[in-house]
Amino acid sequence: MITETANGSLLPRIIGVGAAESRGLRRGFIVNVAEVAKSVKHAINQAEKTAGLQIKKASLSVGGIGVNAFTQIGAAAISRADLEITDLDINKAVEESQNAITESSLLNRKIIHSIPISFKIDGKLVWGQPAGMKGAKLEAKTFFVTCLEQHLDNLTEAVELTGVKTENLTASPFPTSLVNLTRTQKIAGVALANIGAETTAIAIIENDLPVSLEVLPFGSADITNDIALGLKISLEEAENLKIGNAPLANFSRRKLDEIIEARLSDIFELINNHLKKANRGGLLPAGIVITGGGAGTINIEQSARTNLNLPARALTSLLGANSKIQVKENIWSIVYGLCLIGKDGVGADNFGYSFVQKDALNKIKNWFKQFMP
């Protein structure tokens, strides 16, 4: 449910949660639809029981190594005789950017988001929307997010096998950014790293628009496995040591720190390579914000600062959850963001980046008008 708080903000009121062990997945990719459906059904049953309501529809986030993103430029001649640019011209330029994508880039893939990020009129960059301006040619630079079509089909099938209808499909960094990033950060330039169990999703946002997105095939479970092997302990003990929830006992703190830092360095090296590829290495004023289950790893902020040469903050609690159920872990931020996306009119086809407040709903309706193809 979404309720209005005393200061006028619109925030979800969490009335039920459900969790289940993920089965049938590998690096975020579905390898067994039936097993995934069982896990989803178990989580749904828990949520329905605590909420006292039946779940009939759902918004889904799409992650895993099947997701990628790129930009493409398209151009269109202005249609009006007086050369005034209309929404029709804008839509045509965006459409041409999609038409310019090579066939190999979309082989076995489906576009899930198409987001215009900049425009040029007669070769000159336009700040803001070009509608109403004049020129002979309009160019659109569009940010496309794609996913393996088989993965999308399997994900939808797994959910609908539980009797729940899928309404929206959204790349996971977008709902996460709604909850964890401020508008100031997104304008200045920020990297958002969601470190899950088996994958890490990295998104760069600048001027309130996405610049790049990539999903890396490493996550916090790799750190846990390294600790278990290095200290010869169970995975359960290793997980608790990783997040500082267990005494060291007979283990060396120095050795534990070395094991964790070795794997974190590997992950942050891959993140840094992505930042450099996007020409943002060491150049994001708002730094990097780390979320997901891996954000609770000890010393992760210091490791990020050292390896990335950026300000770093790890979020381990879910901020702003106006809830009768205390949900403290940031691992719920994607679900929390999806609740905002699913709220009346704040869907995947007109989803916005401004933090969801009463006076921001109009902005929400503008930013992702081209969000879904």
Automatic annotation (TrEMBL):
Signal peptide: none annotated. One of its GO terms (biological process) is cell division. The keyword Cell cycle applies. Residues 1-180 form the SHS2 domain. Keywords: Cell cycle, Cell division, Cell membrane, Membrane. The keyword Membrane applies. Pfam families: FtsA, SHS2_FTSA. One of its GO terms (cellular component) is cell division site. This is Cell division protein FtsA. It comes from Candidatus Taylorbacteria bacterium RIFCSPLOWO2_12_FULL_44_15c.
